């Protein structure tokens, strides 16, 4: 009976420790892991750096203190990393290589608007709303508001020309209103002319909303107001042009285009084009 005999087998190893085998011919007891630290005079001392305990909980059977190990002076190189490549630098994220092991990856730059501030990060992250990534995309920096102040040269020039053109447009509108009953004003489609001049006046004044510290109201009105009044001005010019073209085409007495000539068509063009822009 070999196994019953092995249950009682024990012996001393070279270090003088007693070793006992169990019924499965395995070492029943644990043992310490020692590091031999040598000195220039060829003497050495045994330093405990870990232990092996089969009776320990799963995952705790082998414990090694790597920091306590002192390598011999002839070992000048560090052990290699058990990876296909080194960790990705800040500003990059890992991208798995197809068909390779899980530890093999490429380092791709962070997507636009994202950052990574540590080595070896799996994915990049987004900056807080009040910050944005720097050029290297390895940190977030605070957002600084930039706007065109009234004291700047460009703002002064823009304000001057906006007011000048607004004044010129208002004077022309006043002339048309004063002479509204004359033949030349009536022939020039008086109503469309009023709409065109008013929309141009508002276009010039919209420039002032793009200058100065932005507020919630001006931010909402900047693009919306300018887009609508500018579309009204363009649609008025388009309506006047179409009206003139149709008027020359409808000179023949039996022409079917005559029914399209009139204010209704012009108003329909202005209203439809402006409505599309407004929506």
Description:
This protein has helices at residues 2-6, 153-178, 183-187, 190-206, 216-249, 263-278; strands at 10-12, 18-20, 31-38, 44-52, 62-64, 92-96, 105-109, 114-115, 125-126, 131-133, 140-142. It is α+β, with helices and mostly antiparallel strands. The longest helix is centred in the C-terminal third of the chain and has 34 residues, at 216-249. The protein starts with a helix and ends with a helix. The relative contact order is 0.05.
Key phrases:
two-stranded antiparallel sheet; 37% helix; 279 residues; single chain; 3-stranded antiparallel beta sheet; alpha+beta
Q: In terms of structural class, how would the helical and strand content be classed?
A: alpha+beta
Cross-sheet strand order for the largest sheet: 3-4-5
The portion of residues assigned to helices is: 25-40%
CA-atom Rg in angstroms = 43 Å
The total of beta strands comes to: 11
Q: Give the amount of beta strand, in percent.
A: 15-25%
* Poorly predicted runs: none
Topology diagram in text:
Layout: H1 2-6, E1 10-12, E2 18-20, E3 31-38, E4 44-52, E5 62-64, E6 92-96, E7 105-109, E8 114-115, E9 125-126, E10 131-133, E11 140-142, H2 153-178, H3 183-187, H4 190-206, H5 216-249, H6 263-278
Antiparallel strand pairs: 1-2, 3-4, 4-5, 6-7, 8-9, 10-11
Helix pairs in contact: 2-4, 4-5, 5-6
